[in-house]
Amino acid sequence: MLSPLPIRNLPPADFIPQAIFGRPASYFANTRRIIFIDDWDDFDRYEGAAFSLNGQLPFALKHYRGHPTDTLTLYLPSDIRDVEQITQIISAIMKELELGRDILVWQRADDPNL
């Protein structure tokens, strides 16, 4: 289950990009009724939304200015480093969002040393 969180409560330095979806934020807003805010952090301006998975794991969906237009990046807490665990979390989030595998452009398992 996904529960919305205030994105401003998530410190940006504590979250790492772990997957890229090949759809813009507007796709998620229209098809999944996700409300994105326009904001900025230490990195740049972004459109973003934050959630918790099963009431425990916080994550963010963000599109930063300058990133490819039709993408949205999934950010997970930086203390999650195991690639197999990251892959399982990505799959769980995609299942909750009812996303097919074709939407996944990149995930940490594709380049675990990055």
Radius of gyration: 13 Å
Query: Between the first and last Cα atoms, what is the distance in angstroms?
Result: 29 Å
Give the averaged pLDDT, no decimals. Answer: 94
Largest sheet: 7 strands, antiparallel
Shape: globular
Helix content: 10-25%
Q: Strand-and-helix sequence, N→C?
A: EEHEEEEHE
- List the domain count as a whole number: 1
Flag low-confidence runs.
none
Number of strands: 7
How big a fraction of the residues is strand? 35-45%
Q: Count of DSSP helices?
A: 2
Structural class by SSE content = alpha+beta
Description:
It is a single chain. With 114 residues, the chain is an alpha+beta fold. The protein has one domain (2-109). The protein contains two helices and seven strands, in the order ββαββββαβ. Strand 4 (45-53) and strand 5 (57-64) form a beta hairpin. The model has no long low-confidence stretch (mean pLDDT 94).
